Amino acid sequence: MAGGFPVAITGMGLVTAAGIGVEPNWDRVCSGISCARLDERSRDGEAHVICSVPDFDAGALLGGFAAWQTERFVQLAQVAAREALKDAGWNPHEWDGTRVGVVVGNSLGGANALERQQENLYQRGQTKVSPLLVPMFMVNMVAGYMAIDMKAQGPSQVVASACTSGTSAIGAGRDLLRSGRCDIVVVGGTESALSPLVMAGLMQMGALTKATEEPETASRPFDSSRDGFVAAEGAGMLVLERLTDARSRQAPVHAVVRGYGSATDAHHPTSLHPDGRGIETALRWALADAGIDPSQVDHVNAHGTSTQQNDLVEGTVLTRVLGSRPSVTSTKGVTGHALAAAGAIEAIYTALTLRHGCAPPTANLEHLDDALNLDVVAKTPRRAPMEVAVSTSLGFGGHNAALVLTRN
Question: Exactly one of 30, 163, 273, 299 is catalytic; which is it?
Fold first, then answer.
């Protein structure tokens, strides 16, 4: 296969609106049935459409300590990480923790905790503010708590680059393996910031869908009638090892990370460069890093947020770089947009697409935007042999990142 520095994905864990666990997630994204619902917590009575994790019981899944001392974005990550470790066949009580790293993407931390405690301060006074407030909302704490949980004593950090955070965490974890500093790196992304204040802010800036009458059709990537994204929560965690190490211990290899690229628009705080120069550069770097020719790409799991600008700019770049051959999907039609966690979640869906030879449909796509020349999978899953796939991510701040994965 191609060049670059091959890193094996030996374990995967998912906690999203599509379910808790990799198998329920795969079944749901392949169904094309949206997870969106109305959330009516806004103070002025205006409803928002969200995708939240169903039936998540932190006490049952993690134990009482985690349930009351950590915030939800940490809890989601820990559950996903434990699944990934089990999948990879690793027992933290048996490995050399000094050779294990943790890199997690997150942007908004414990926004819900901050809002709750700010209300306590205003209504009840300083003495009623929790002493756990700061560690509950700091973004770095998810990497810290994960390291504690899995006894990982190597480097641990959080990558905060908006909606590319999860993808960039995978790139950073791969670099730790390449450098020789670590032998195992647990990477991924997590986000749980569906708070009234955050939702109000996203709505006021025009990022969210206003299609509240039929929430299940609100997220419609690449559709001509798209009007904004559906905010979501979730976590996706992957265990990365050098491909040679994984094969030597006969570990399962779900897919291989062959290339990573990142670039910045340097254009506007929240709007993409109209020519998509950042995502084009990131994608070309990822392909070059992997030693993959654009003509070899079989599939793209696109960022595909369901906003007018993102889908048009991203779709145009995909055609410019890859042509119209690859099948394209956006799983955000089912899961919504999990912000900093999205890239990691979608990297796992991309690995599953390669493993199963099956591309999930883009939910709610009825009329492809006439300005796009893409082969977007819609209505039903598409089965086809696939060897090379790309996952793209774009974020506020002009951040862009791309991964190239191969089946083996």
Answer: 163
Count of H helices and E strands in the chain?
14, 17
Residue pair 165/187 in contact (Cβ under 8 Å)? The answer is no
Residue 50 has pLDDT above 80, yes or no: yes
Q: Which of 48, 273, 337, 399 is catalytic?
A: 337
Phi first, then psi: what are they for 229, rounded to 5°? Answer: -90, 165
Task: Mark whether 303 is an active-site residue.
Answer: yes
Choice among 254, 299, 303, 399 that is catalytic: 303
User: Hunting for tokens 């808790």 — which residue is that?
Assistant: 20
Lowest mean pLDDT among 5-9, 119-123, 154-158, 311-315: 119-123
Placement of tokens 């955000």 in the chain = 332
Beta bridge partners of 229: 208
CA distance 299 to 404: 10
393 Cβ contact list (under 8 Å, min separation 6): 163, 164, 166, 167, 168, 303, 342, 343, 346, 399, 400, 401, 402
For residues 190-216, b (16+ Cβ closer than 10 Å) or e, as one string? Answer: bbbbbbbebbbebbeeebbbebbeebe
Our CA angle for 254, 258, 262, nearest 5°, is 120
Q: Which domains does the chain have, with CATH numbers?
A: 8-406 (3.40.47.10)
Sign for the pseudo-dihedral over CA of 208, 273, 277, 370? positive
pLDDT in tens, 74-108: 999 999 999 999 999 999 999 999 999 999 999 99
Catalytic site includes residue 182: no
pLDDT class of 66 with cuts at 50, 70, 90: confident
